[in-house]
Amino acid sequence: MSDPIWNLGPAGDMRPLVCPERDMDISVERYGGIFQGLSGARSMTVTGQKQRFNFELRYLSIQEYAWLEALHFRSIFGVYRLRNPFKRNLLSPNGSLVRSVSDNRTIKVTSGIAGVARGHWPSAAGNLSNISAKWTNRSVGTQVIRIDDRYRVPVVPGSPVTFSMYLKASSAISAASTGMVIDWWDIDSASLGASPAVFPAVATTWDRFSVTATPPANAVFGRGAFYTNVTAPDIYAAAAQFEEGSTPTAWEIGGGAPVVLLDKLETSSPRFPYRTTILSLLEA
């Protein structure tokens, strides 16, 4: 795992935070409702889960506080990302579970349907889920499944990253008909092409496949993708991971680089010229 350093800012300009005080709040909140019928029975709707972060940063110098103040006043343009050292997997939670949602921020297919396959899960990935994505009804030609299509992952040029995913099919697919890559973008979301591909031979049992690449100069975002040029058989995908380094590590639910909103910057001064602040961040 990387050093326990929190980084905050827009992709391409994420800077380390001063080490927060102990007992930080890094909760995951559920959104939705709880309903109670006349019988007293309860039901719950879940529209999503989002993280909340509260840090106490003490005795900040003028220069250390200035960066947070600039983010709070939105004088630093861009979408803010938080690098969470508790998580290796830089995908969103839904992206890591290869779970489609209505806004297409997570998985996106160029054709066909990526539905839920209950009871299909690679045991080698651990016991943290029991469903996968089932990709069916693909059109003729090369078709792609993209993970975290709109979120993408902040990357650092020259620092290798690895994208991995478990795959199986209802009948075997040869390596000549598949590919796995990492796509790159610059700070203006202009495409910088893709990494060299690896070519998974997808069997009828689960296998983990990975591609490792080094982001090119000017790259600030990466996105993992798998493609095939066969319309059948059905393809199952699960347990995706995008992480720093050249070797895939044990799979975990994502959340290591969320998009965040700077909600509060509550500040006091223990003595001049230092400041102590409570920094509150909400996952977007």
What is the overall shape? globular
Mean pLDDT: 93
CATH level 1 name of the largest domain: Mainly Beta
Termini, distance in Å?
25 Å
Briefly note the CATH topology name of the largest domain. Answer: Jelly Rolls
The portion of residues forming beta strands comes to 35-45%
CATH structural architecture of the largest domain: Sandwich
Order of helices and strands: EEEEHEHEEEEEEEEEEEEE
Provide a count of the helices.
2
Low-confidence stretches: none
Helical proportion, percent range: under 10%
Radius of gyration over C-alpha positions, nearest whole angstrom: 21 Å
At the fourth level of CATH, the homologous superfamily of the largest domain is Galactose-binding domain-like
Biggest sheet: strands, sense, closure? 6 strands, antiparallel
Query: Helix- and strand-based class?
Result: mainly beta
Keywords, please?
284 residues; single chain; Jelly Rolls; 2 domains; mainly beta; 5-stranded antiparallel sheet
